[in-house]
Task: structure prediction
Amino acid sequence: MAEFFEMGGHGFFIWTSYAVTALVLLHGYLAPVLRRKNLIRQLGSPDRGPGTK
Result:
């Protein structure tokens, strides 16, 4: 089992690459979802920001 995780001495690079890829994919999914929720909250609030009456 340890040989699987070591990947012939390249384990650190390989597992770090998988982790970075997972983080990029997670960010690519969550960023628009959170942006949409924030926009909906802003549009629904009575105070829509500076310059509005």
In short: The helical segments are 2-6, 11-44. The mean pLDDT is 88. The chain is about 75% helix and 0% strand.
